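Protocol step 4 of 6: structure prediction from sequence.
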Amino acid sequence: MTRHTAPAEGTSRPDAAPRTVLAVGVRAPPLYDPAMDRIEYFARLVAEDPGVARARFAYATELQRAGRLEEAVGEYRAYLGLQEDEGNAWSRLGECLAALGRADEAADAWLQGIDQATRHGHAGMADDIRAMMEAL
């Protein structure tokens, strides 16, 4: 959220008590309600703006944690369609696919993850993904 500080109303003095205003056209994100389920929260963010890659990644991660793997696969793929990933999402996608018994698709995702991790200088991540492939 972008905030701008403006002088107190009725004055142009920079040392006057500031007030915070939202930039024109910027909508505040929905407030997180601790009683709300994390999956529900991220689902709401994605529904409000499906083009926000980080919301999709967070939603996919929560779905994966909850064991809702088929849904997580869809969200990881949606995220990867929006954002170049450095290997993490490819790795997680591969984990979901492997757990669903889709070994060939998992291997394809992991190969992409190794490529991306290597390209972005994450040698340790690439090694971790290789280890998952070998265990498949």
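Step 5 (inspection) to follow. The chain has a mean pLDDT of 83.
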